[in-house]
Amino acid sequence: MTEWIDACATDDIDAEDLIRFDHGGATYAIYHAPDGDFFATAGKCTHEDVHLSNGLVMDYVIECPKHNGQFDYRTGEAKRAPVCVNLKTYPVKVEGGRVFIQVA
Amino acid sequence: MSKRDYSLLGPDGARAVATGLAAAEWYHTDVPRKEMKALMQRSDAPAIRDTLLLFGLMAGFAGIGIYLWPSWYSAPFWLAYGVLYGSASDSRWHEAGHGTAFKTPWMNNALYEVASFMIMRNSATWRWSHARHHTDTYIVGRDPEIAIMRPPAFAKLIAAFFGLPDVAAFFPRMLYNAFIGVHPSEKTFVPESEWPKVVRVARISTAIYAATFALALWMGSILPLMVIGLPRLYGAWHHVMTGLLQHGGLADNVIDHRLNSRTVYMNPVSRFIYWNMNYHVEHHMFPMVPYHALPRLHAAIKHDLPAPNTSIAQAFAEMWPALKRQLASEEYFLKRDLPATAKPYREDFHLAALGAAPAAAE
Question: pLDDT tens digits, residue range B17-28?
Fold first, then answer.
């Protein structure tokens, strides 16, 4: 069963940045894209056990802070070594100035 | 601790995995997110400037060297060319491999491939080797880039200043990769999807060296090899000099970069050749910060780090006696004092993972 989780306020995340969001024993990354849209992915890099929240958002790419691997956070696609496995993404909606993510 | 086994397939590596010392969470100095974001920002301009300068100087020095060849008057120009070819290529390989030199990805990739060839590293293999070096910095049996093992092999260290161990290891491995495939030890850190690239890169390198060697034979002169290949020997000294200082004489099997890495203030010429990797604690703690921002990062976090060494000579004066003591005792390492403003070393982390008593140190 899936549910929408209230993750944060829209103004909790600067444009072209991300935050970490923990819920139900899992960790997620919530992104605020340069065009104003919001996205959500798994919170840790698929290469090693590293939180992406300390990484750098450049346009629609998140770069892992440990090894500089890159993902397109809109699709989860692995874009640059050493990451080879895509990042899991989650549906996002914005209502009343809040960001909700849909998790299993 | 028993005698160290640096093999990536050996018991020390297996123990590091079993105890959690491998792929552990490392200590980081607190830096406000806004400040860190500013430090991490990428830019093409500094690296374009430095790359044009580097290859412009190389072309100039090599051109004069060829013009004056075979006179001994060409020697200074070859020595200058050699340092840029055989040493600056190391730092360019490193920074472009991180993807932080330029903002534009293809520029990083292009510089990475050229620099990898010059420094005689398979660009596919070493990208993964260096990722492991950052995951498990100086974790015995896990880090494939430990420059000074314990006890130190001084003859090998001195030979390294002339590039001899690296070159002696490179050519057999290049031929192995080109004609047999990926080596079993490489398979421990290179994903299977990248194995064809390892072979392809090795075959391209083999073709270039074969063509250069054939040209030298045809000309009856080593001149082509003075341009391609030999500078990796006669110009290696600078990257070895600076590289040994990165971790030499410091702790291993720890998960706090302040214990196993060294920051050294250097002259501007060495910093250009080394591309600011003298700020090595800073680089390991925050590898996303580009080389041109490392001085600013240093200023931001130095309150939490051991005092930097004040020069290359002063750093060697600190390191060399420690290496000599490691001949008698593998457990010895330099443990630098932290300033009063710093958070204490997180020795509880790695000691718990090792399940061992504290190592001897002073």
Answer: 888 888 888 899
